[in-house]
Amino acid sequence: MASDGGSVGRGTGARGGYQVRGGGRGRGGRDGGGNQQHQQQQPPHQAGLGRGRSGDHSYQPNPQVGSYQYGAAASRGYAGGVRGGGRTGGRGNWVPRSQQERPSYGHGAESVEGRGRGRARGTGGAPRGRPQRPVDAPMTEPEVDRQALPSNPPQPVPVPVMTSVTQQLASTSLSPGNKNKYNPIMRPDEGGKVSIATVRLNVNHFRVNFNPSSIIRHYDVDIRPVESPRNGRPAKLSKLQLSNIRSKLFTDNPQLPLLMTAYDGEKNIFSAVRLPEGEFKVELSDGEDLKSREYKFSIKLVNELKLYKLRDYLSKNASSIPRDILQGMDVVMKENPVMRMIPAGRCFHPTETSPEDDLGHGITASRGIQYSLKPTFQGLALCLDYSVLAFRKKMPVLEFLAEQISGFNVNNFRRFRRDVDQVLKNLKVNVTHRVTKQKYVIVGLTREDTRRVSFPDANDPQQRIRIVDYFREKYNRNITYLDIPCLDVSRNNRMNYIPMEYCVLAEGQIYPKEYLDRNAACLLKEISLARPHVRQSNICGMVQSEDGPCGGNIIQNFGIEVDTNMTSVKGRVIGPPVLKLAATKTGKMMKITVDKQTCQWNLVGKAVVQGKTIQRWGVIDFTHCERDPFRRVNSQSFIPKLTDRCRSLGMRLEEPVLYEKAGMHIFSDVNALSQLLEGVTSRVGRGNLQFLLCVMSRKDDGYKCLKWISETKIGVVTQCCLSPHANKGQDQYLANLALKINAKLGGSNVELNDRLPHFHGEGHVMFVGADVNHPGAHNKTSPSIAAVVATMNWPEANRYVARVRPQFHRKEQILEFGEMCLELVESYARLNKVKPEKIVLFRDGVSEGQFDMVLNEELMDLKSVFQKINYFPTITLIVAQKRHQTRFFPVERNDGGPNGNISPGTVVDTTIVHPFEFDFYLCSHHGSLGTSKPTHYHVLWDEHGFSSDQLQKLIYDMCFTFARCTKPVSLVPPVYYADLVAYRGRLYYQAMLERQSPPPTSSSSSSSFTSSSSLSSAASFQDWFKLHADLENMMFFV
């Protein structure tokens, strides 16, 4: 093999389909005299940076192997010339073996003989040390009735034997379609082996069987009215209209079988049989009294989805995931629920509600399903989970108002008019005075009461018709409530008024949970947090339901079947780490063993590892003006108790140097709040106050302004608390406050007794977390907020600093990722006098479809920025996912904890994971409520050569170092902190908008993030997010 960082000697290479012969002593900075029929250019981030020259190369490609394998195999023939002089050699002819001869996946290594000698410093050259991805071998497409695979499909290269850490470099392979594009790495082994127990689990993955010789035909459809629009632009048809038109056509036309097709509600139809192409005409009325309209329905075949390609990917005979096939099958799986249930985002909910789920005020909880198709090691799987949402009930509008508005009386409507308008605006209603499925959107209320409402006569615009007369003559209906307004459902400048008594709230309208009162919110939470055995029973019932994705015989018509039994897997329980705390009296370090079942620990008789000395701190009492004495903080009791608790934890907290009295009303005035904070800090001296304790009587929106001003303008750490909790003065509450304060000021609360796994040698390691916070779905302009955090101490790796920046609206890619990481590296270098040699990067909030963006854009941006300053650390990139539906259920009682959940440290890395990429599920926390949700970790890039055991143990151990609690958290801390910082950035933005003299207005600032092609145009806007220099290296966000 090529020699790597600092090694001298002989080596062995790897056997492949290449004849490489060469010897060269490098000093010329170029390849010498090579006879190379094919050369692959290395990307800048992996190209060798030394000077060297390699000998002759002879490349003979195997016609069955995709050319991109050359980069990871043949490159070994000249990598010795990288970074210094050297020569390498290799030999061997690779011949594809029959299926019976091939080694099992993930095992063994074929030796390669070769000789090489060289000197090298650092790392360079092409990534190696892992099995390569499967290759898309050329093959003829099968007919419907014959097998798809060739007789000798190419297989993944077996795992080579690792000889040293320096050989375990990046193992990401080049994509076959693009030499400079990289795919996620292959799994390095068959999964982890280390455990303190093995457990049997049921997983909510249901095996999907399909016929690989089947073809799903994809048709593009175009639906539009025949009649020309009046204003020149055709009105956009709603999804309901499109679905009704499609159903009418496919029901009336025998050539278009309804149950053999699936429609996505917009432009795509997938069919199990060939459909006639062309243009069809459909007549459909929106209601019994409305004139039928004629529509043109065009059908055009755009693709044939051959399922053997999915079979090849699942059996590791193809490298690129057939997303078009998965998308088509997903639409097929949704067809039955769409027809029988209520779609709500990615979930489906039943049309009927249960009285026991009533939340009051016209709101009900609904128990639905959410699911996805996942390619796994066992094959394609349907992952189905239980979902709970709050919906407005389907009920008459007047009854809904009586439940929603306290004291509502239809006979005294004027008193409640403003509340009614606010409650009903933008809701959808159906009507009862005529037969129609059409939904109308409420835009407001009519100015006049119903008895006075009128509209122009269509035949004689000079005449007006009273709505009371119209309903009597047209529908034979007498309106009862004449002294209340009508609902205004006008659209596209077409006047439309409907009496409230003939309107019913349409089903499927989600009620935001943040608007629920306390009792309703608690009940919804109780229903959502179903115990494991209840959740498992619900899931099994849903997968067998006639209304669900497996009902209605639709998927069967496409040759798809779902095994309705949960998948059984074996899990491993990883042992918890030994922790380190200090003794309260002596301050000596002591080993702490966590609880066996919950993995939690307590601070009784213990102190933090490094407690800060706090001599200059102040208190702002925002409860001073409260009339309720229980809302006012008892400072004579609270402050001494907090001081004593801090001291018992090893922190030296002196008496506060100032105590400022204020009222909660000041939070409604950003300028007054700013003046208060500036006045308090200036009295002590700018930069001299270590932290401010802010006591509030209740939660207030002004909290965001407090944080924005203190952290970006003044540069002082703040710790907020609520007076009801402060007055109780419970020991656990005071300890939690102390832990937050200590971490914010640079102290160390808890540390691992032993070093983190894998990194035992010299050299600093930095852990990085990155996340993006997006505005709510209703917000169309606000910027997204990117946050990156990184550790600043090694080997403790528990103190972080953060950077936060705004970027384009709903843009998931972190646009200045490299620059943000470089800032953190420079901070690390200033604090430690050395740059980290190794970086482990965790990325949060991205789906499988965004892996390519993270790997080929964000990571490459990072490496490019580092390369500009001649800095080349080794990097591992891992995506952490919490937004998935996978749940684990212990088979027997002793396979989990006493509450029926899986135990902390449970890991699953077989059967339900990716067919060949490096991923696993880890539940690192104790689930005390509901059903535990594991975190899914997916490794995209690895230059450190982690094994499954090493990486799983490293992540699990890190979950014990979260600063503000005494238990392991569910998400690896770099990601957890990045999420907190991104949310803090969202608060900064909201605070900016509330300031009387804000930075660029919300419209201008947001437009710069939606239409501008460069962030430089918004540089001044970004300055409003820039942390104060005094807080740049502090954990202010804990």
Short summary of the structure?
By secondary structure, the chain is an alpha+beta fold.
Largest sheet composition? 11 strands, mixed
What's the number of extended β-strand segments?
A: 47
Low-confidence stretches: 1-129, 137-172, 996-1017
| Percent of sequence in beta strands | 15-25%
Helix tally? 21
Notes on the protein architecture:
The protein is α+β, with helices and mostly antiparallel strands and 1038 residues long. Helix content is 23%, strand content 23%. The chain has 21 helices and 47 strands. The strands form twelve sheets. The protein has an eleven-stranded mixed sheet with strand order 41-40-39-42-43-47-46-45-28-7-44, sandwiched between helices. Strands 8, 14, 15, 16, 17, 18 and 27 form a seven-stranded antiparallel sheet that branches. Strand 36 (691-696), helix 13 and strand 37 (717-722) form a beta-alpha-beta unit. Helix 13 (703-714) packs across helix 19 (973-994) and helix 16 (817-832) crosses helix 17 (851-868). The protein is globular, with a radius of gyration of 33 Å. The two termini are 47 Å apart. The model is unreliable at 1-129, 137-172 and 996-1017 (pLDDT under 50).
